[in-house]
Amino acid sequence: MSHGDESPVAKAGHGADHHERRRKVVSGIRLEIEKIVARILFLWVMFGLFELLHAVILVRQNIDYTAHGVALFNAIVMSKVLLIAEDMNFASRFHESRLIYSIIYKSAMFSVLFMVVHLVEETLKGLIGGHGLAASLPHIDHVSVVLCTAAILFIALLPYFAFREVGRVIGQDKLWAIILKERRPLPAQEA
Q1: Helices 99-128/70-87 angle, 10° precision
Q2: Alpha helices, DSSP H only, in the chain?
Q3: Positive or negative: CA dihedral 42, 45, 47, 53
Q4: Phi-psi sector, 164: left (phi>0), alpha (psi -120 to 50), beta
Q5: Using CA atoms, how far apart are residues 123 and 104, in angstroms rounded to an integer?
Q6: Which of 6, 85, 153, 176 is most buried, by the most CB atoms less than 10 A from its CB?
């Protein structure tokens, strides 16, 4: 039987399959967009606070500093790094352990990853600007600056990974329902 000789019932089945595949593709695209937008927003706030701190410190030293858009650009780049690393199961060593271990480990490892990516980014900017490798490497005044930045990143990423890991265990929909659902007061316990 040729494709044109199919019964109306068979043709309707193919149409339903096509619509189901299309629905799945659209749903998958929407989910990926939601994932990237959520990460960008979280990282934009975090990097925006870093930029604000940087500006306040420089103003106190009477140095004019305006870095408009840097936080958003960094958020976009790092959110993509975050998605790729998560898809590659980066820092999933404690995936089946207690959640607290997984949350702490992921926060620490992603803090290091973000710092490495930032150093590579700064080095590439220098190389593209025509500087040699030695001149392109970011100048780090003090180890304390690096350690402080790593500590802030680590603390800032803890709630992100707490949400991710709890959502992974109980389901993202259930997690958001718990967080956003209106709560009723608990009945008073009898003594």
Answers
A1: 130
A2: 8-60, 70-87, 99-128, 133-136, 143-170, 172-180
A3: negative
A4: alpha
A5: 29
A6: 153
Which residues constitute the domain of residue 53? 8-180
| Residue 56: predicted pLDDT | 83
Cα separation, 149 vs 50, whole angstroms: 9
Read off the pLDDT of residues 139-161 as tens digits, 9 standing for 90 and up: 776 677 778 888 999 999 999 99
112: tokens are: 């290091």
3-class secondary structure, 104: helix
* pTM recorded for the entire structure: 0.74
Structural domains of the chain, count: 1
Place of tokens 């604000």: 52
Helices (H) and strands (E) in the chain, counts: 6, 0
* Residue keyed to tokens 């096509």: 18
Instruction: Answer yes or no: is 167 within a domain.
Output: yes
Residue 42 identity = F
173 is a domain residue = yes
Residue 27 token pair: 């749903």
Q: How many residues does the chain have?
A: 191
